[in-house]
Protein: Nuclease-like protein
Organism: Salinibacterium amurskyense
Amino acid sequence: MPDSPMSASAYDVLGVQASATEVELKKAFRRALRETHPDTGGDPTKFAAVQDAWDRVGTPEKRRRYDAGSRTNTHSTTAGSSPFSSRPSTAAREDSRPRARTHGHPGGWRRERFLDSMREWVGRGVTLDDPYDPALVRSAPREIRRTLADALAEEATARTVSNLGIGYTIWHDVSTGPPERKLDHIVLGPTGLFAMLSEDFGGEVKVRRGELIGPAVAPEKPMHELAARAKSISRQLKVNFTCFVIVVPDDALAQPQISLGTVKGQPAVVVRQSVLAHLLRTGPELGRGRDIGGNELFDVRTRLTSGIRFVE
């Protein structure tokens, strides 16, 4: 069960309220095991989710830590911290290799939108001590949780691409008109120019007829929307994108990466977060990508640096 605002809580998976007693929690766990066990016709994925949920709240100590917001099996948070509040680390790195050039604030616009929405939702006059409190976030409307989930997804992508090396340049939160129609990332490197969105739809995504589908996928045609935004940058700055990429959580995609064919004349790919760096280093697999370098790379970088505007 990933640490995402869009994920079902451990209590949701077990089918109980967060206020359930220890006895009620154990009964719910046993019942859920019986209902989802593969040997009795249950769903193996749901069975694994039940076991994971119990591993998080199955003892008083684990439950206390879970309710306080920490995760005992994740490296992204420390004990007692909210899994939803972490930002890209600014701590000194042990790795001394040069990092990619980065511009803009990944996830910044959605972070601000989330905070504004949370304040409006709790109401005027109510003190919001910690807008990232896990219990508060889980109780918020889906639209608010989705905003935070996407901010976290953008920040995760930013951490990945920043480690690509000095040969890459990245722009985050790029304006293509209204803020909600931004490009989350533009990545320029030796394998080409990539327009990217980082999305957490809160569920599994599949591919059909060159587009992402799924019960939680919104907007309805995210890849075509990405292509339209990228094309506006192409027309404005006279650059050609090599590939359109949508990045999703690892558990949202059945394969490491799936080609969507071509969208508006360019290769389009949906990729797991964990294999994004490989895609950007090797390029798309549709035969349309080509290495760029020297004067061409310098010219494209100059045009983007001078012409890109960031969302406010």
